[in-house]
Each structure stands twice: as C-alpha cells, then as structure tokens.
Design a protein that fits this description.
The chain has about 220 residues and is an alpha+beta fold. The strands form 5 sheets. The protein has a 5-stranded antiparallel beta sheet, with no helix packed on it. A 4-stranded antiparallel beta sheet has the order 1-2-3-4. Helix 2 crosses helix 4. Helix content is about 15%, strand content about 25%. The site of one zinc ion has 7 residues, from loops. The site of one zinc ion has 8 residues, from helix 3 and helix 4.
C-alpha cells in the first residue's frame, strides 16, 4: 500500500469521488487504515488529526464531525468511524471518561472526568479495610473510609482544613481524603479489626501509599 501526500483541496476532491454505494466501505476502510491521531479533549469531544494535515472535532455521541464530508454531505465520515473504533478498542477513553496515569506505576487508566488526582490502577487503588503506609512517617494505617471530599474542604480545627495541616504541605490541596486509624490501637476479632476508640485521622490520599515508602523518604531513626 502506498500513501500519497496530498493537499487539502485534493483531499476534498478525493472524498467527493468516493461518494455513492462504494463510499460506505471506503470510509470504513479509511477509518481503519489511514493515519489519524485521536485525542479525547473532554465533554465527549475528540480531536482527530488526519493524515491530510487537517484537524477535525468529533462529537461521538452526537454523531457529528467538523469535516466537509460530514458538514456538507451529512456522511458518517471516516473521523467519526475512527473515533468509534478507537473507543471500542480502548485506545481512547469513552465519553465521560479521561485518560490518566496511575500515580504509582504509570499505567494508563480511564477515570471519570473531573476525578481528582492521584489516580490509582486496580493494583494500586486502596479501599476500606486496606492497610497502607503513611509516606510521612512510614507508619501503617488501616483505611476506614474513602469519602468523596477534598482535603481543603474538610475542617480539622477551627478554620483549618486537612490541606492546611503542616504535615500535608507536600500534597495537593484538592486531594481526595482517606479516613484511617492506627492498627496498633485495634482489637482483632473473628469479624475483623475493631477499634476500641474510634480516633479517625484524615489524610490526603496521595500521602498514603499501598507499598512501604522508600527508606530515604521514611523518617530515619537517628
Ligand atoms: Zn469527519
Ligand atoms: Zn498502578
């Protein structure tokens, strides 16, 4: 297969020629074979950089594209088809999701648009009942809650939020928070750990790590 460089004008002519009965298959073939870069830009909209050098915007759910093939001929153009293909094959996030990297291992994830960092993959996400490590002290804490609240939105003292606390200065103010207790204070029963006194501490999520912190990051004993 050879690919020819062509100007936008000749590109439009070529698309015009592909109208008609065979045009359907031709658009699908091009959607699969042409070099296009699809980028999710949010709100269910995708930017498609085509091999002609033009960029078009695709509204996947609305079935719309800004290219001439769609705007002037009303066709389900190759850009729309390519976005649908890339979404169904997991190369770009579906509408309502965004692509982010796991804060621990860097693997790409699709999370809800507007979800707060840090983002964690299935191997590195933690939930209620998990024992995790406090990066500041190296202590292990038991997660007892993962409320959908921001660190700068939870008061721990008159007028001061979790984010304001001096020990949280290195973590984002808009971090989601995690409620945790110190397992040293727990009693263990057949039903699991039961805290004798519910002293719950609230941490910015990125302060907690599923794995032990690096030796240098932990508080070193003198
Ligand atoms: Zn198009
Ligand atoms: Zn991960």
């Amino acid at each position: 297969m050879t690919q020819t460089e062509h100007t936008p004008a000749s590109d439009r002519r070529r698309r015009g020629i592909s109208r008609g009965k065979s045009g359907v298959d031709e658009r699908t073939r091009r959607a699969f074979t042409e070099r296009m870069r699809v980028t999710a830009i949010g709100g269910g909209t995708y930017e498609v950089d085509s091999q002609s050098g033009h960029s078009y915007l695709v509204d996947l759910e609305g079935g719309r594209c800004t290219c001439p093939d769609h705007v002037y001929r009303g066709e389900r153009c190759k850009h729309l088809r390519r976005v649908a293909i890339d979404v169904s094959e997991g190369r770009v996030p579906p509408p309502g999701k965004m692509a982010v990297d796991c804060a621990v291992c860097g693997v790409e994830l699709f999370v809800d648009e507007g979800a707060h960092a840090p983002h964690l993959c299935g191997d590195h996400e933690f939930g209620v009942g998990d024992l995790v490590y406090d990066r500041e002290t190296g202590n292990r804490v038991l997660v007892v809650g993962t409320p959908e609240r921001r660190a700068d939105d939870i008061s721990i003292r008159r007028g001061h939020s979790v984010a304001d606390h001096y020990s949280n200065a290195d973590y984002p103010e808009d971090d989601a928070v995690v409620a945790a207790v110190y397992p040293q204070s727990l009693q263990f029963t057949a039903d699991g750990p039961v805290p004798p006194s519910l002293t719950v501490y609230t941490f910015p999520r990125s302060r907690l790590s599923p794995s032990p912190p690096e030796r240098s990051a932990a508080t070193a004993a003198p």
